[in-house]
């Protein structure tokens, strides 16, 4: 589900304004409960006009969640080859810190992040993890005895579960509460899970993550 072509012909500022209104409503009332009519009213156009941009409520929700995912990936930025293993882990931690800062500053994104990541079963989301895994293999500390597509899928699944757990903790944490060194609350546990998943290999463990 994607917005209808006419939505994409709107000025970028108007597109963002509509998505921002919808994002706020879905964040406040939940993806399953937010009123399509109230979103339309808040966005300042009629129901007839709304159907020129979206097929319906689920189409609008999909557009909002895709936009949230784009915003999160924009914070992470594209993965570029690391200099060495230390640089690799430092970049993961830096990305985690940047993501925490963004989510704390944008509570609507925080409220919808789990749903946005859950909707992204492939495409750019798996592509980002694919680049990370490929780089770790190049550096010699991510296992090579598992098919890369399977390992990327498993990595994304671990991070999906970790995200849901960490975002729940982040939602519950007061703004002044310091986060773990790795960014998201309990971040060291997430890195431990990844090290366990990525270690070993057909070479008997050479280049094991540690």
Descriptors:
210 residues; mainly alpha; 10 helices; disordered C terminus
Q: Could you name the ranges where pLDDT drops below 50 across 5 or more consecutive residues?
A: 176-182, 201-210
Beta-strand level of the residues, as a percent range?
under 5%
Q: Given the helix and strand composition, which structural class is it?
A: mainly alpha
- Biggest β-sheet, characterized? none
* DSSP summary, beta strand count: 0
Tally of DSSP helical segments: 10
What level of helicity do the residues show?
55-70%
Computed CA radius of gyration, to the nearest angstrom: 19 Å
Tell me, rounded to a whole number, the average pLDDT.
84
Write the H/E string, N to C.
HHHHHHHHHH
Chain oligomer state: single chain
Q: What coarse outline follows from CA principal-axis ratios? A: elongated
In whole angstroms, the N-to-C terminal distance is 42 Å
Describe the structure.
- This protein is mainly alpha-helical.
- The protein is 68% helix and 0% strand.
- It is built from ten helices and no strands.
- It has helices at 5-8, 12-29, 36-43, 47-50, 57-76, 85-105, 107-119, 123-139, 148-172, 187-198.
- Helix 8 (123-139) packs across helix 9 and helix 9 (148-172) packs antiparallel against helix 10 (187-198).
- The protein is elongated and about 55 Å long.
- It starts with a helix and ends in a 12-residue tail after the last helix.
């Amino acid at each position: 589900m994607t917005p209808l072509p006419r939505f994409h012909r709107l000025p970028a500022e108007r597109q963002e304004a509509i998505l921002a209104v919808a994002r706020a409503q879905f964040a406040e009332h939940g993806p399953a409960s937010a009123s399509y009519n109230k979103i339309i009213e808040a966005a300042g156009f009629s129901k007839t006009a709304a159907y020129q941009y979206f097929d319906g409520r689920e189409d609008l929700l999909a557009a909002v969640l895709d936009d949230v995912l784009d915003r999160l990936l924009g914070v992470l930025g594209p993965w570029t080859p690391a200099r060495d293993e230390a640089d690799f882990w430092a970049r993961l931690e830096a990305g985690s810190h940047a993501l925490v800062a963004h989510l704390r500053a944008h509570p609507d994104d925080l409220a919808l992040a789990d749903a946005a990541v859950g909707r992204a079963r492939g495409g750019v989301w798996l592509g980002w993890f694919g680049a990370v895994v490929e780089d770790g293999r190049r550096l010699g500390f991510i296992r090579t005895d598992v098919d890369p597509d399977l390992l990327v899928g498993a990595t994304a699944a671990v991070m999906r579960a970790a995200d849901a757990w960490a975002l729940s903790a982040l939602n519950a944490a007061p703004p002044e509460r310091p986060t773990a060194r790795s960014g998201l609350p309990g971040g060291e546990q997430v890195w431990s899970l990844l090290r366990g998943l990525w270690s070993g290999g057909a070479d008997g463990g050479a280049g094991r993550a540690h």
